[in-house]
Amino acid sequence: MMTLASVGTGLLFGVPGHLRAASSAVSRSYWALLALLAQALPFFTAFSLAKPEFSDFAWGGVAALLIVPAGYIAWQWRSAESYIDRIVRIASAGLAALMGWIALTHWFSNDYLASATFVVTAALAAWAMRTQSKAMQELAVIPLAFGVLALATGSWRFFEALNNSLGGIKLMASTLPEIGEAARMTLLPALLVGLIAALPHFALGRWPRRLAWLAGGAGALGFLWLIAKQVAAIDSPSQFITLGLAERVVMTQLLFLAGWLALRRATDWSSLWAKAGMAATALALFRMFWFDLGVFNPLYVPQSLGPIPVANLGTIHLGLTAFWLWQMARSRVVASAHGQLPKLSEIASLVMMALTALVTVRQLAHGNLISGGGIETGENYLYSAALLILSIIWMTIGIRLGLAVLRLAGLALLTVVTLKVFLIDAAALEGVLRILSFMGLGIALIGIGWAYGKVMRAGSLAAE
After folding, report:
1. Confidence check: pLDDT of 13 > 70
2. Measured between alpha carbons, how far is residue 361 from residues 155, 303, 374 in Å?
3. Which of 266, 280, 341, 414 could be stapled to 258 by a disulfide with Cβ–Cβ 3.0 to 4.6 Å?
4. Of 265, 277, 230, 269, nearest to 250 (Cα)?
5. What are phi and psi of 429, to 5 degrees?
6. b/e code 265-292 from CB counts within 10 Å (16+ = b)
7. Looking at beta carbons, which pairs linking 367-374 to residues 24 or more positions away fall under 8 Å?
8. 257-263 long-range CB contacts below 8 Å, 24 or more apart?
9. Is the Cβ–Cβ distance between 331 and 263 less than 8 Å?
10. Is the pLDDT of residue 313 over 60?
11. Is 239's pLDDT higher than 80?
């Protein structure tokens, strides 16, 4: 009964309203508003009081039919200029979008709530581009914000996994979202909002477009991470010891590779390639420092590096990271950047080289698992020898190629090694062995100083 009364009321006021709105009368805008109210109020009254009388599919069909009259008014008032005409244009477009959203959310399950909302956002943003209307841009922001909220809510299991991982909890495959569920609730809406942000057919404004980029990129990246986690499928502590580091190494190095490829294609800082390259590199660095050097460091969390000296996961991971950072400092975009970014990238690369030398020695002394054991005297000497060799290599390359950063870093590292030998290594020796170690170090330092001075003088004469 309520449904029939609502239909009758809508027809009673809606039909005359639309007829008068189609005329050229001065008051046609007010008649258009009456037609919109006659469409909206009876529908929502019946929807709230008599919803159980019909199925969701039927209510969605009714809402879809009601898009037509509201959309027709929005089309007729697309070039409106007066204040009341602009109100009609916004109200009609908003009502058509709302009816479309109700139809989609009743035809599809709640898993597609964010996707349905982004479809409505795309329609309003496309209409804003068609009408060149600032008000329509602002109207499209409403479903965009709601869609981002729905996307975040539907991806709560990703946030839970991220929070646990950042806190040092080992993620098991059984606790991650299911692929099908994640595809419906995260990937699909992420792709939709990403298209809205990327294509010029949608007018959103600067900051809403950035929000769309952020939501789409985060959703797509989260789904790719979920797919990558299925390869190793770690689901027990023993599997984490065997495969945990290998899984992180592959993911992080793929991010470094993607960042390097994007930076190679970038021409300036404003390009999408530059932003994507820096974002991928920053994420890879975060993973390296937070997980591999932080909460899941193999020094205190048992993880397999591999039994082969030098060709182990620790050496490869840190060595490749040093390589990518050195290459980033020399990319066209980063090298032309103002400020200290190129220099910081070079310094970070040198730090990673030093860590590579240290983890190589650690693996050589302890084998596959480097956690738990102390530092024996022989291992301590090997650290000094490895850093000494690295400092000599840096100075040699820096002098030959004229790279001041390598030359100065080599001198600094040599100073550190010298202090370590005098204060730590020699303290473990006694008698003649201590005297011989001091003599050997002194001779080595004299030789390095003589060679360094000779090369520098030759370089100065050549420059003159």
Report:
1. no
2. 43, 17, 13
3. 280
4. 230
5. -105, 165
6. ebeeeeeebbebbbbbbebbbebbeebb
7. 367/307, 368/304, 368/305, 368/306, 368/307, 369/241, 369/298, 369/302, 369/303, 369/304, 369/305, 370/298, 370/299, 370/305, 370/314, 371/298, 371/299, 371/300, 371/301, 371/302, 371/303, 372/300, 372/302
8. 257/324, 259/284, 259/324, 259/328, 260/324, 260/327, 260/328, 260/331, 263/328, 263/331, 263/332, 263/333, 263/334
9. yes
10. yes
11. yes
Q: In this structure, what is the dihedral angle of CA atoms 331, 336, 338, 342, given to the nearest 10 degrees?
A: 30
pLDDT, tens digit, 9 for 90 and up, residues 327-369: 998 888 887 776 688 888 999 999 999 999 999 999 998 989 9
How high is the pLDDT of residue 385?
87
Residue type, 330: R
Residue type, 386: A
d(CA 418, CA 19): 94
CA distance 217 to 282: 14
Query: Could you tell me how far CA 47 lies from the centroid of its own chain?
Result: 41
Please report, rounded to a whole number, the percentage of residues in the chain having pLDDT higher than 70.
Answer: 81
Given a cut of 50, is residue 170 above it in pLDDT? yes
